[in-house]
Design brief:
Blueprint (H helix, E strand, L loop, with lengths): L2 E9 L5 H13 L5 E9 L6 H8 L2 H10 L4 E4 L2 H5 L5 H15 L6 E3 H11 L4 E6 L3 H13 L3 E7 L5 H5 L6 H4 L10 E5 L7 H11 L3 E3 H12 L7 H4 L7
Parallel strand pairs: 1-2, 1-3, 3-4, 5-6, 5-7, 7-8
Helix pairs in contact: 1-11, 3-5, 6-11
Length: about 250
């Protein structure tokens, strides 16, 4: 039975990443032999504004150093909008910079960003047209939409819940998504991103929404977990792995 250490680079006010991502890994443990522990380093951020996100992102390198000291097997940077608000394709820059920190610290470590994981997840799902739900203010949501479209997808529709306080984002009832998604135009949409934010809870609602609309439903947390499993070289064809991107964990 092999054990893996999962490193998480977390906004200081984020409380969801450390519940949903472990929940997905724990689900895998029920059908596969590997076991996982979780280790976090935090970046200061309270309000989800472009200014605070930029300041927070600058702290991510220190977090990578700290997690590298613990010799984690993979690191996940889970603040999708922090990456996407920094400019098109920035997840590639961030992943490279964070990896270099681990190399310089003597323990090269695979890096996953939730922004890059969502893009890769949409590719795995074969998406061309998507709809997106975010908790962000409208200007930040538009940056997310532009980022996704720059990666080759068409965002048919999006919803911005306009919640600037990050703790309030975490306090949202995931079951509210069952009503929220109905405000979207889903005509010709291939994939619904029920939460383009690892702080907005969603797991309990994902499978229910998918059953109602009949197309794949995913989230930033699901894609981040899937990408971490891939980086670890784990079998993603087992039931909760092969269908992880559609939320059937």
């Amino acid at each position: 039975m092999k054990k893996y250490k999962i490193g998480q680079i977390v906004p200081s006010s984020n409380t969801t990443m450390e519940t949903e991502i472990p929940a997905l890994f724990r689900s895998r443990e029920t059908i596969a032999p590997e076991r996982f522990t979780f280790h976090s380093s935090r970046m200061r951020m309270k309000k989800v504004t472009k200014e605070e996100l930029e300041a927070m992102d600058a702290m991510s390198l220190k977090c990578a150093q700290e997690l590298s000291d613990a010799q984690v097997d993979v690191m996940g940077y889970a603040c999708l909008v922090a990456i996407m608000s920094m400019g098109r394709g920035y997840h590639c820059v961030s992943e490279t910079n964070l990896h270099e920190e681990t190399v310089n610290n003597g323990f090269p470590t695979p890096i996953v960003t939730s922004a890059g994981a969502l893009i890769n997840g949409l590719k795995v799902l074969g998406a061309k047209k998507v709809a997106v739900i975010t908790p962000y203010m409208k200007p930040l949501t538009q940056l997310v939409v532009d980022y996704i479209e720059h990666q080759g997808f068409e965002v048919v529709d999006s919803i911005a819940l306009e919640i600037p306080d990050n703790l309030e984002v975490a306090a949202q009832n995931p079951m509210n998504l069952l009503d929220i998604y109905k405000r979207l135009n889903l005509k010709d949409v291939d994939v619904l991103v029920a939460s383009a934010c690892v702080q907005m809870p969603s797991l309990e609602a994902v499978d229910l929404i998918e059953k109602e609309i009949g197309i794949p439903v995913t989230t930033a947390a699901i894609c981040t977990t899937y990408e971490m499993m891939k980086k670890l070289g784990l079998d993603t064809k087992v039931p909760i792995g092969g269908e992880l991107l559609s939320g059937k964990y």
